[in-house]
Amino acid sequence: MKTQILEFNPEWIDSRLLEAAGDVLRSGGLVAFPTETVYGLGGDALRGEVSRKIYAAKGRPSDNPLIVHVGRIEDVDKIAARIPEQARAAMDAFWPGPLTIILEKKPIVPDPTTGGLRTVAVRMPDHPVTLALLRQTGILMAGPSANLSGKPSPTTARHVRADLDGRIEMILDGGPSCLGIESTIVDFTVTPPMILRPGFVSAEQLAYVTGSPVALDPAVFGKETAGKEAPRAPGMKYRHYAPAADLILVEGAEPEHVVRAIGEYVLRAAAEGRRTGVLTTEENRERYPAADVVRCVGSRRDDATVAAGLYAALREFDDLGVDVIYSESFPGGEHGQAIMNRLLKAAGHQVLEAEHGRGHGP
Ligand code: TXA
Ligand code: MG
To answer: Which fold has domain 246-360?
Structure first.
Protein backbone atom coordinates (compact mmCIF):
# COMPACT_ATOMS: atom_id res chain seq x y z
CA MET A 1 0.00 0.00 0.00
CA LYS A 2 1.05 3.59 -0.52
CA THR A 3 1.63 5.48 2.73
CA GLN A 4 0.34 9.03 2.59
CA ILE A 5 2.26 11.66 4.58
CA LEU A 6 0.40 14.76 5.77
CA GLU A 7 2.50 17.65 7.03
CA PHE A 8 0.99 19.80 9.73
CA ASN A 9 1.80 23.22 11.01
CA PRO A 10 1.12 22.67 14.74
CA GLU A 11 0.48 26.41 15.15
CA TRP A 12 -2.35 26.40 12.66
CA ILE A 13 -4.04 23.05 12.27
CA ASP A 14 -5.74 22.40 8.96
CA SER A 15 -9.03 20.69 9.77
CA ARG A 16 -9.28 19.29 6.22
CA LEU A 17 -6.15 17.25 6.88
CA LEU A 18 -7.71 16.03 10.13
CA GLU A 19 -10.82 15.02 8.20
CA ALA A 20 -8.67 12.96 5.82
CA ALA A 21 -7.06 11.21 8.79
CA GLY A 22 -10.52 10.69 10.34
CA ASP A 23 -11.69 9.03 7.10
CA VAL A 24 -8.81 6.54 7.27
CA LEU A 25 -9.55 5.75 10.93
CA ARG A 26 -13.30 5.36 10.30
CA SER A 27 -12.61 2.94 7.46
CA GLY A 28 -10.50 0.79 9.81
CA GLY A 29 -7.11 1.98 8.55
CA LEU A 30 -3.96 2.92 10.45
CA VAL A 31 -2.62 6.46 11.01
CA ALA A 32 0.71 7.25 12.70
CA PHE A 33 0.33 10.30 14.91
CA PRO A 34 2.65 12.72 16.77
CA THR A 35 2.67 13.01 20.54
CA GLU A 36 4.83 14.85 23.05
CA THR A 37 6.52 11.55 24.03
CA VAL A 38 7.02 9.50 20.84
CA TYR A 39 5.03 8.88 17.65
CA GLY A 40 2.14 6.42 17.97
CA LEU A 41 0.49 4.05 15.48
CA GLY A 42 -3.24 4.69 15.70
CA GLY A 43 -6.37 2.76 14.84
CA ASP A 44 -9.93 2.51 16.18
CA ALA A 45 -9.50 0.96 19.65
CA LEU A 46 -13.03 -0.41 19.77
CA ARG A 47 -12.58 -2.66 16.74
CA GLY A 48 -10.66 -5.83 17.46
CA GLU A 49 -9.71 -6.39 13.83
CA VAL A 50 -8.05 -2.97 13.73
CA SER A 51 -5.91 -3.77 16.78
CA ARG A 52 -4.84 -6.99 15.03
CA LYS A 53 -3.76 -4.89 12.04
CA ILE A 54 -1.67 -2.72 14.37
CA TYR A 55 0.20 -5.76 15.71
CA ALA A 56 0.74 -7.03 12.19
CA ALA A 57 2.10 -3.68 10.93
CA LYS A 58 4.57 -3.47 13.83
CA GLY A 59 5.47 -7.16 13.77
CA ARG A 60 4.57 -7.19 17.47
CA PRO A 61 3.48 -10.16 19.60
CA SER A 62 -0.27 -9.88 20.09
CA ASP A 63 -0.27 -10.48 23.87
CA ASN A 64 1.19 -6.99 24.26
CA PRO A 65 -1.70 -4.64 25.10
CA LEU A 66 -2.18 -1.24 23.47
CA ILE A 67 -2.70 2.19 25.06
CA VAL A 68 -6.04 3.84 24.21
CA HIS A 69 -5.63 7.55 23.43
CA VAL A 70 -8.53 9.87 24.29
CA GLY A 71 -9.25 13.53 23.55
CA ARG A 72 -11.55 14.17 26.51
CA ILE A 73 -11.63 12.98 30.11
CA GLU A 74 -15.30 11.95 29.61
CA ASP A 75 -14.10 9.40 27.03
CA VAL A 76 -12.56 7.38 29.85
CA ASP A 77 -16.04 6.58 31.20
CA LYS A 78 -16.82 4.82 27.90
CA ILE A 79 -14.09 2.22 28.38
CA ALA A 80 -13.33 2.05 32.13
CA ALA A 81 -15.62 0.13 34.51
CA ARG A 82 -14.51 2.18 37.51
CA ILE A 83 -12.36 5.26 38.00
CA PRO A 84 -10.85 5.40 41.48
CA GLU A 85 -10.58 8.83 43.13
CA GLN A 86 -6.77 8.78 42.88
CA ALA A 87 -6.84 8.01 39.17
CA ARG A 88 -9.19 10.93 38.64
CA ALA A 89 -6.87 13.24 40.54
CA ALA A 90 -3.94 12.09 38.39
CA MET A 91 -5.87 12.63 35.13
CA ASP A 92 -6.95 16.10 36.25
CA ALA A 93 -3.40 17.05 37.18
CA PHE A 94 -1.38 15.58 34.31
CA TRP A 95 -3.65 15.34 31.24
CA PRO A 96 -3.08 16.11 28.53
CA GLY A 97 0.42 14.83 29.24
CA PRO A 98 2.91 11.95 29.49
CA LEU A 99 0.91 9.77 31.87
CA THR A 100 -0.88 6.48 31.06
CA ILE A 101 -3.25 5.02 33.60
CA ILE A 102 -4.42 1.41 33.92
CA LEU A 103 -8.07 0.88 34.88
CA GLU A 104 -10.55 -2.00 34.90
CA LYS A 105 -12.06 -2.19 31.42
CA LYS A 106 -15.63 -2.32 30.20
CA PRO A 107 -16.67 -5.17 27.84
CA ILE A 108 -16.86 -2.67 24.95
CA VAL A 109 -13.04 -2.78 24.70
CA PRO A 110 -12.24 -5.81 22.52
CA ASP A 111 -9.72 -8.43 23.63
CA PRO A 112 -7.14 -7.76 20.90
CA THR A 113 -6.81 -4.15 22.15
CA THR A 114 -5.93 -5.22 25.69
CA GLY A 115 -4.13 -8.44 24.85
CA GLY A 116 -6.94 -10.27 26.63
CA LEU A 117 -6.40 -8.43 29.95
CA ARG A 118 -9.29 -7.30 32.18
CA THR A 119 -7.69 -3.87 32.33
CA VAL A 120 -7.18 -1.08 29.83
CA ALA A 121 -4.43 1.54 29.51
CA VAL A 122 -5.60 5.13 28.79
CA ARG A 123 -3.77 8.34 28.00
CA MET A 124 -4.54 11.85 26.73
CA PRO A 125 -1.50 12.95 24.70
CA ASP A 126 -0.35 16.56 24.74
CA HIS A 127 0.14 17.39 21.08
CA PRO A 128 -2.06 19.93 19.30
CA VAL A 129 -2.44 17.85 16.11
CA THR A 130 -3.38 14.61 17.81
CA LEU A 131 -5.59 16.26 20.42
CA ALA A 132 -7.47 18.03 17.62
CA LEU A 133 -7.80 14.74 15.70
CA LEU A 134 -9.19 12.89 18.73
CA ARG A 135 -11.58 15.70 19.60
CA GLN A 136 -12.77 16.33 16.05
CA THR A 137 -13.44 12.66 15.25
CA GLY A 138 -14.44 11.41 18.71
CA ILE A 139 -12.50 8.23 17.94
CA LEU A 140 -10.72 6.38 20.75
CA MET A 141 -7.38 5.52 19.22
CA ALA A 142 -5.35 2.45 20.14
CA GLY A 143 -1.72 3.44 19.78
CA PRO A 144 1.53 1.70 20.51
CA SER A 145 4.76 3.46 19.59
CA ALA A 146 4.99 3.61 15.78
CA ASN A 147 8.21 1.60 15.39
CA LEU A 148 8.77 -1.89 14.06
CA SER A 149 8.93 -4.22 17.05
CA GLY A 150 12.47 -4.26 18.49
CA LYS A 151 13.44 -0.82 17.08
CA PRO A 152 13.76 2.32 19.18
CA SER A 153 10.53 4.31 19.45
CA PRO A 154 10.23 6.98 16.72
CA THR A 155 10.53 10.63 17.68
CA THR A 156 10.10 12.04 14.16
CA ALA A 157 7.83 11.29 11.19
CA ARG A 158 10.99 10.31 9.29
CA HIS A 159 11.68 7.53 11.81
CA VAL A 160 8.10 6.28 11.38
CA ARG A 161 8.51 6.26 7.64
CA ALA A 162 11.78 4.33 7.86
CA ASP A 163 9.98 1.56 9.77
CA LEU A 164 6.41 1.53 8.45
CA ASP A 165 6.40 2.96 4.91
CA GLY A 166 4.12 0.80 2.78
CA ARG A 167 2.66 -0.96 5.87
CA ILE A 168 0.17 1.71 7.02
CA GLU A 169 -2.24 4.14 5.31
CA MET A 170 -1.05 7.47 6.68
CA ILE A 171 1.56 9.37 8.71
CA LEU A 172 0.74 12.71 10.34
CA ASP A 173 3.93 14.76 10.56
CA GLY A 174 3.61 17.15 13.50
CA GLY A 175 7.33 17.80 14.03
CA PRO A 176 9.73 16.10 16.44
CA SER A 177 8.41 14.76 19.77
CA CYS A 178 9.62 17.13 22.45
CA LEU A 179 10.02 14.70 25.39
CA GLY A 180 11.47 11.74 23.50
CA ILE A 181 10.66 8.82 25.83
CA GLU A 182 7.35 7.08 26.42
CA SER A 183 4.77 8.03 29.05
CA THR A 184 4.84 6.99 32.70
CA ILE A 185 2.45 4.04 33.17
CA VAL A 186 0.62 3.74 36.50
CA ASP A 187 -1.66 0.88 37.49
CA PHE A 188 -4.60 2.20 39.53
CA THR A 189 -6.26 -1.23 39.86
CA VAL A 190 -3.89 -2.08 42.73
CA THR A 191 -3.31 -0.47 46.15
CA PRO A 192 -1.13 1.47 46.40
CA PRO A 193 -0.98 2.53 42.74
CA MET A 194 2.08 1.08 41.02
CA ILE A 195 4.39 2.54 38.36
CA LEU A 196 4.91 -0.07 35.63
CA ARG A 197 7.10 2.16 33.42
CA PRO A 198 8.93 5.32 34.59
CA GLY A 199 8.63 8.50 32.53
CA PHE A 200 8.48 12.29 32.84
CA VAL A 201 5.71 12.17 35.46
CA SER A 202 7.56 11.05 38.59
CA ALA A 203 6.53 8.92 41.57
CA GLU A 204 6.88 12.00 43.81
CA GLN A 205 4.55 14.07 41.62
CA LEU A 206 2.01 11.23 41.55
CA ALA A 207 2.17 10.74 45.31
CA TYR A 208 1.68 14.45 45.85
CA VAL A 209 -1.34 14.68 43.56
CA THR A 210 -3.07 11.46 44.63
CA GLY A 211 -2.26 11.78 48.34
CA SER A 212 -1.19 8.13 48.29
CA PRO A 213 2.16 6.38 48.35
CA VAL A 214 3.10 5.08 44.89
CA ALA A 215 4.96 1.80 44.39
CA LEU A 216 7.45 0.90 41.65
CA ASP A 217 7.07 -2.45 39.85
CA PRO A 218 10.23 -4.41 40.78
CA ALA A 219 10.41 -5.57 37.15
CA VAL A 220 11.26 -2.00 36.03
CA PHE A 221 14.97 -2.37 36.77
CA GLY A 222 15.15 -6.16 36.99
CA LYS A 223 16.48 -8.27 34.17
CA GLU A 224 13.64 -9.38 31.96
CA THR A 225 12.64 -13.05 31.62
CA ALA A 226 14.02 -13.66 35.13
CA GLY A 227 10.83 -15.73 35.33
CA LYS A 228 9.72 -15.28 38.92
CA GLU A 229 8.42 -11.74 38.79
CA ALA A 230 6.18 -11.49 35.74
CA PRO A 231 6.18 -7.84 34.65
CA ARG A 232 2.78 -6.26 35.01
CA ALA A 233 3.15 -4.26 31.80
CA PRO A 234 3.55 -7.22 29.44
CA GLY A 235 5.47 -5.09 26.95
CA MET A 236 8.27 -4.66 29.46
CA LYS A 237 9.32 -8.29 29.16
CA TYR A 238 10.58 -7.94 25.60
CA ARG A 239 14.03 -6.73 24.64
CA HIS A 240 12.77 -3.33 23.60
CA TYR A 241 14.17 -0.21 22.00
CA ALA A 242 17.10 -2.27 20.77
CA PRO A 243 19.65 -0.94 18.31
CA ALA A 244 21.20 -3.44 15.88
CA ALA A 245 24.67 -2.84 17.35
CA ASP A 246 25.81 -4.25 20.67
CA LEU A 247 25.07 -1.56 23.26
CA ILE A 248 27.10 -1.50 26.47
CA LEU A 249 26.39 0.88 29.33
CA VAL A 250 29.42 2.06 31.26
CA GLU A 251 28.90 3.15 34.86
CA GLY A 252 31.38 4.56 37.34
CA ALA A 253 31.66 6.48 40.58
CA GLU A 254 33.32 9.44 38.79
CA PRO A 255 32.49 10.76 35.30
CA GLU A 256 36.26 10.89 34.74
CA HIS A 257 36.53 7.12 35.25
CA VAL A 258 33.75 6.49 32.76
CA VAL A 259 35.36 8.62 30.06
CA ARG A 260 38.71 6.91 30.51
CA ALA A 261 37.21 3.42 30.59
CA ILE A 262 35.17 4.03 27.44
CA GLY A 263 38.34 5.29 25.75
CA GLU A 264 40.02 1.96 26.53
CA TYR A 265 37.06 -0.15 25.39
CA VAL A 266 36.98 1.76 22.12
CA LEU A 267 40.66 1.05 21.46
CA ARG A 268 40.22 -2.62 22.29
CA ALA A 269 37.16 -3.02 20.06
CA ALA A 270 38.89 -1.14 17.23
CA ALA A 271 41.88 -3.48 17.52
CA GLU A 272 39.43 -6.35 16.92
CA GLY A 273 38.28 -4.61 13.76
CA ARG A 274 34.92 -3.50 15.14
CA ARG A 275 33.36 -0.19 14.18
CA THR A 276 32.78 1.74 17.42
CA GLY A 277 30.28 4.31 18.60
CA VAL A 278 30.07 6.38 21.77
CA LEU A 279 26.90 7.91 23.21
CA THR A 280 27.76 11.00 25.23
CA THR A 281 26.70 14.56 26.11
CA GLU A 282 27.92 18.11 25.39
CA GLU A 283 30.24 17.90 28.38
CA ASN A 284 32.36 15.04 26.99
CA ARG A 285 31.75 15.09 23.26
CA GLU A 286 35.35 16.03 22.38
CA ARG A 287 36.86 13.33 24.54
CA TYR A 288 36.51 10.23 22.38
CA PRO A 289 38.86 10.90 19.45
CA ALA A 290 39.42 7.17 18.76
CA ALA A 291 35.74 6.31 18.27
CA ASP A 292 34.37 6.02 14.72
CA VAL A 293 31.06 7.66 15.58
CA VAL A 294 30.34 9.97 18.53
CA ARG A 295 26.73 11.00 19.15
CA CYS A 296 25.91 13.72 21.61
CA VAL A 297 22.43 13.52 23.15
CA GLY A 298 22.12 16.84 24.95
CA SER A 299 23.60 18.08 28.18
CA ARG A 300 23.89 16.66 31.68
CA ARG A 301 22.92 20.06 33.07
CA ASP A 302 19.38 19.36 31.82
CA ASP A 303 18.79 15.65 31.40
CA ALA A 304 15.45 16.25 29.62
CA THR A 305 17.68 17.01 26.61
CA VAL A 306 19.26 13.56 26.98
CA ALA A 307 15.81 11.93 26.92
CA ALA A 308 14.82 14.00 23.89
CA GLY A 309 17.87 12.92 21.86
CA LEU A 310 18.24 9.32 22.97
CA TYR A 311 16.20 7.29 20.46
CA ALA A 312 17.27 9.36 17.46
CA ALA A 313 20.89 8.73 18.44
CA LEU A 314 20.36 4.97 18.71
CA ARG A 315 18.82 4.95 15.23
CA GLU A 316 21.75 6.94 13.84
CA PHE A 317 24.25 4.40 15.14
CA ASP A 318 22.33 1.74 13.21
CA ASP A 319 22.24 3.86 10.06
CA LEU A 320 26.00 4.36 10.30
CA GLY A 321 26.73 0.64 10.61
CA VAL A 322 28.34 0.70 14.04
CA ASP A 323 29.14 -2.74 15.55
CA VAL A 324 29.41 -1.76 19.20
CA ILE A 325 28.16 1.29 21.10
CA TYR A 326 29.56 2.34 24.48
CA SER A 327 27.20 4.61 26.35
CA GLU A 328 27.80 6.83 29.33
CA SER A 329 25.12 6.35 32.00
CA PHE A 330 22.74 8.97 33.31
CA PRO A 331 21.48 8.09 36.79
CA GLY A 332 20.63 10.64 39.43
CA GLY A 333 19.23 13.47 37.32
CA GLU A 334 15.61 14.57 37.32
CA HIS A 335 14.69 12.03 34.63
CA GLY A 336 17.48 9.56 35.43
CA GLN A 337 15.14 6.70 36.28
CA ALA A 338 13.24 6.92 32.99
CA ILE A 339 16.40 7.32 30.90
CA MET A 340 18.26 4.47 32.59
CA ASN A 341 15.22 2.17 32.28
CA ARG A 342 15.24 2.67 28.49
CA LEU A 343 19.02 2.42 28.14
CA LEU A 344 19.21 -0.76 30.23
CA LYS A 345 16.55 -2.35 28.04
CA ALA A 346 18.25 -1.26 24.85
CA ALA A 347 21.52 -2.70 26.21
CA GLY A 348 19.87 -5.97 27.20
CA HIS A 349 21.32 -5.15 30.67
CA GLN A 350 24.96 -5.25 29.50
CA VAL A 351 26.65 -2.96 32.03
CA LEU A 352 30.35 -2.49 32.71
CA GLU A 353 31.73 -0.86 35.83
CA ALA A 354 34.58 1.61 35.30
CA GLU A 355 36.90 1.14 38.27
CA HIS A 356 39.66 3.50 39.28
CA GLY A 357 39.66 4.95 35.82
CA ARG A 358 40.37 1.63 34.16
CA GLY A 359 38.05 -0.44 32.05
CA HIS A 360 37.86 -4.15 32.76
CA GLY A 361 35.72 -7.01 31.48
CA PRO A 362 35.13 -7.77 27.80
O1 TXA B 1 4.14 7.61 25.40
C2 TXA B 1 3.52 6.58 25.14
O3 TXA B 1 2.93 5.92 26.01
C4 TXA B 1 3.48 6.13 23.68
C5 TXA B 1 2.68 7.15 22.88
C6 TXA B 1 2.46 6.74 21.45
O7 TXA B 1 1.46 7.42 23.53
N8 TXA B 1 2.92 4.82 23.56
C9 TXA B 1 3.59 3.68 23.92
O10 TXA B 1 2.92 2.51 23.63
O11 TXA B 1 4.68 3.70 24.44
P12 TXA B 1 3.61 1.08 23.65
O13 TXA B 1 2.58 0.14 23.12
O14 TXA B 1 4.89 1.12 22.92
O15 TXA B 1 3.82 0.75 25.16
C16 TXA B 1 2.68 0.46 25.95
C17 TXA B 1 3.06 -0.27 27.20
C18 TXA B 1 3.48 -1.70 26.94
O19 TXA B 1 4.61 -2.00 27.74
C20 TXA B 1 2.25 -2.49 27.42
O21 TXA B 1 2.59 -3.76 27.89
C22 TXA B 1 1.71 -1.60 28.53
O23 TXA B 1 1.89 -0.31 28.03
N24 TXA B 1 0.26 -1.80 28.75
C25 TXA B 1 -0.74 -1.50 27.90
N26 TXA B 1 -1.94 -1.87 28.42
C27 TXA B 1 -1.67 -2.40 29.62
C28 TXA B 1 -2.49 -2.96 30.65
N29 TXA B 1 -3.80 -3.06 30.53
N30 TXA B 1 -1.88 -3.41 31.77
C31 TXA B 1 -0.53 -3.31 31.91
N32 TXA B 1 0.28 -2.79 30.97
C33 TXA B 1 -0.27 -2.35 29.84
MG1 MG C 1 6.77 0.68 22.26
So the answer is: Rossmann fold (3.40.50)
